[in-house]
């Protein structure tokens, strides 16, 4: 049996989209943005940029912040490039202020906040 080696760049865009849609948007953006022009065009598609969950979750439904390395890359490199495409965020409370104050999100219409202390929620929503 003869083995063949196929690189990601060898696949047609349609096949890449099918594969990438099965992954988490945050992982796609973190791993593939600015890798090359073709992948950059694909990962800037609204399928990957309109809904972002910038947190991790475990099998028992607990949510935690992204690692500092990942969060730094998002805040310094990724979010400034895609901020105008983001429509919905899911954020963990310890990183929400940094993310929300980073830039303007003109198309943001939804926000999910996780691990938010009741006192913090009261302060946020009562002025």
UniProtKB/TrEMBL annotation:
Signal peptide: none
A Pfam family the protein falls into: F-box-like
InterPro entries: F-box-like_dom_sf, F-box_dom
Domain F-box: 5-54
Coiled-coil positions: none
The name this protein goes by in its record: F-box domain-containing protein
Organism per entry: Rotaria sordida
């Amino acid at each position: 049996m003869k083995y063949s080696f196929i690189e990601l760049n060898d696949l047609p865009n349609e096949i890449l989209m099918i594969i990438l849609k099965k992954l988490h948007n945050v992982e796609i953006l973190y791993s593939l943005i600015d890798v090359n022009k073709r992948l950059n065009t694909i990962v800037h598609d609204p399928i990957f940029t309109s809904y972002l969950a910038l947190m991790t979750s475990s099998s028992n439904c607990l949510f935690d912040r992204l690692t500092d390395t990942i969060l730094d890359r998002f805040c310094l490199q990724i979010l400034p490039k895609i901020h105008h495409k983001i429509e919905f965020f899911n954020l963990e409370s310890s990183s929400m202020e940094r993310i929300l104050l980073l830039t303007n999100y003109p198309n943001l219409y939804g926000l999910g906040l996780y691990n938010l202390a009741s006192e913090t929620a009261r302060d946020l929503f009562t002025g």
